[in-house]
Amino acid sequence: MASLCVSASAQGQGSVGQFDGQTDVGKVKRPGSASYDPARQEYVIEGSGTNIWFDHDEFHFVWKRMKGDFILRTNGELLGKGVDPHRKLGWMVRSSLDSNASHINAVVHGDGLTSLQFRRTKGAMTEEKKSALTGADVVQLARKGNTYTMSVAHNGELFVTEQVTDLALGDEVYVGLFVCSHNPNVSEKARFHNVRIVVPARDNFVPYREYIGSNLEVMDVATGHRKILYQSPESLQAPNWLPNNKALIYNSNGRLYRFDLAKKTPTEINTDFATSNNNDHVLSFDGRMIGISNHSKEDGGKSIVYTLPVGGGKPKRITAVGHSYLHGWSPDGKSLIYTGERNGEFDIYKIGANGGSETRLTEAKALDDGSEYSPDGKYIYFNSTRSGTMQIWRMKADGSDEEQVTNDEFNNWFPHVSPDGKWIVILSFGNDVSPNDHPFYKHVYLRLMPVTGGTPKVIAYVYGGQGTINTPSWSPDSKQIAFISNTDSIEKATVK
After folding, report:
1. How far apart, in whole angstroms, are the C-alpha atoms of residue 272 and residue 251?
2. Would you call the peptide bond into 225 cis, given omega within 30 degrees of 0 as the criterion?
3. pLDDT band at 13 (very low <50, low <70, confident <90, very high)
């Protein structure tokens, strides 16, 4: 069955997806158009025009008005063989819709040329910074003040950047996607998916006291195609995927919520007295129970591990002392593993699912965190700073034979093994973040690697961090993951 597409006319009559309108900029011979497929969350834009160059431009533009700082990101592809090798697509930030307006664009041409092009003042000649990378699949353009940064990548690879630091386009600008055919007598089409317009946290943002909005997303791991299921102005964190494939569970404002995948609606889970839950919550492998980490008033606000039925109920206390941050449940349902802070040291501990005495599994003078069992129960994966940066490690289920899994320039957190035991997803921070920290609201990568080892590849480019994927979130068939991305532009809760 064909997907329903929402189209709009060429001169901005009505919104197109998340954009306010569209228009042909300049005197084009062939009117452009745009359509949005809400089921796939994809845009198709058709445009003509001679060029975006020299002192004026001709192209089709799908835009919205924005102020302040922002991050624009998309996957894009030109459709068909095309006529001119310099047909092009990309992001543009423009001071006005005049053909000779000052602007900047992150552009990918049909012949692969990828560059950051800009006009400093109205009617001035266009300047260019060419990227060393050609044929980009992922295009990001970010503004911070008068600094514009283009980040581009091939699917699965790291970003390559170019930057302009002194471009004044005004506070309120036109922001959007464009297509130009580079031939006035023909029209060209491009398809865009994973389109994200992000408003980042402000500079004086206070972590853990203030929060920005959240996108609850799922992604097809094989294709990288992402869909936003739900948007909220609140902080949603750490989705778990139920084994019956009917719902996700996430935390927000100390409570737990069940998000029905069929109805696309969240419902609060009754956790009785436990109303200060953090984002360390884990499902049992059979999906009947959930373990939580609640900041207990009677323990001075320290995080304590509890368990309760997945449908809700009165939590049962498991750990005697805190801090205890739950991260894993054994496949046989008999044991829980968690990060315990004991005498100033953070290590991995194991305890029976009904409580009892705890067993210390790691003893390195480092931060050990994010522990999770492999589906066969033979190994525990975790992240540790023992090598100097945060890297992924694994050990046998009894804590023996510790071995390093990743060793690269990133700080890698929260290894999640797919239910089929073949893949590991990790959250990777850059070296702008301390190895022992995993803060909110950063540029991060979600990366995928075989459980047998190898170089991780990027599967998602995300504005997020803390709360994005702290806990296991694979779909039961090992084909998708759920995660949280963030933006400060969400005014009300919305089902997508």
Report:
1. 15
2. no
3. low
pLDDT in tens, 348-363: 999 999 999 999 999 9
pTM, rounded to two decimals: 0.96
Phi then psi for 193, rounded to 5 degrees? Answer: -135, 170
Residue 254 in tokens:
């100390």
Exposed, middle or buried: residue 467 (CB in 10 Å: 0-12, 13-18, 19+)?
buried
For each of the domains in the chain, give its residue range(s) and CATH number, in order of start.
6-198 (2.60.120.200), 213-495 (2.120.10.30)
Burial class (CB in 10 A: 0-12, 13-18, 19+), 400: exposed
C-alpha–C-alpha distance, residues 279 and 48, integer Å: 48
User: Distance between CA 158 and CA 448 in Å, rounded?
Assistant: 13
Contacts of 457 (CB under 8 A, 6+ apart): 156, 157, 447, 448, 449
Can you tell me whether residue 297 is helix, strand or coil? helix
- Rounded alpha-carbon distances, angstroms, from residue 343 to 208, 322, 323: 24, 10, 10
pLDDT at 12: 53
- In terms of phi and psi (left: phi > 0; alpha: psi -120 to 50; beta: otherwise), the region of 223 is alpha
Per-residue pLDDT, averaged over 274-280, amounts to 98
Measured distance CA(314)–CA(137) in Å, rounded: 49
The pLDDT tens digits for 256-274 are: 999 999 999 999 999 999 9
